[in-house]
């Protein structure tokens, strides 16, 4: 019943944003910078947590384009919105999936994109393991998610204590901590090609934000947003 409730809540949440432009967020800009069209030609790409489909549509429009894009989300309503918006994109297959239990065989995709998704599931470690399983050896995962191992995380604890938890505006949030996230990534078998953080938040008054592009190396663990380029090791 709890999973059904969360699914219904996400359907309702996505339906509120049917006409927004969802490709200009900082995490989507990160992915767009990493994607080299010539390196995607002929590849099968998975976007998990595709929402209303903006990024998958962008990728489908690259020249040369990937062979196939599988765009997945937990919300059926989000996928219906995406299908209507981008019905002209024949290279995209829209599919309802749970990132913690993907239906695809092992070693299916050359590239996987997961933006701001693993923090919205009960078992983020399992989600990372699943992404590793369905990625081909030598394949690349672009992963972004928040980090609460910082001043903002302490503020979130305070909010929980007073009965007004921070939710990111979504039905479910798992407060990820960067040290734990790095441990899950390494235990899953990924090689970290590169990672950095951005957005150092001081939750005072209206909240002060610093280093919105990239946090200095010495402060990397305190950035609120994380950006990972991960490789599945070749056997």
Provide key terms for this protein.
single chain, alpha/beta, Rossmann fold, two-stranded antiparallel ribbon, 9 strands, globular
What would you note in describing this structure?
The structure is a single chain. 33% of the residues lie in helices and 25% in strands. By secondary structure, the protein is α/β, with parallel strands linked by helices. It has a single domain, classed as Vaccinia Virus protein VP39 (Rossmann fold). A hairpin with a 5-residue loop joins strand 7 and strand 8.
CATH topology: Rossmann fold
Percentage of residues assigned to helices? 25-40%
Return the average pLDDT rounded to an integer. 90
Structural category: alpha/beta
Order of helices and strands: HHHEHEHEEHEHHEEEE
Which CATH architecture?
3-Layer(aba) Sandwich
Unreliable stretches covering 5 or more consecutive residues: 1-5
CATH class identity = Alpha Beta
Number of strands: 9
Rg value: 17 Å
Count of helix runs: 8
> What is the total number of structural domains?
1
Spatial strand arrangement across the major sheet = 3-2-1-4-5-9-6
Could you state the CATH homologous superfamily? Answer: Vaccinia Virus protein VP39
C-alpha termini separation: 41 Å
Strand portion:
15-25%
Sheet with the most strands, sense and barrel status: 7 strands, mixed
Please state the overall shape, judged from the principal axes of the Cα atoms.
globular
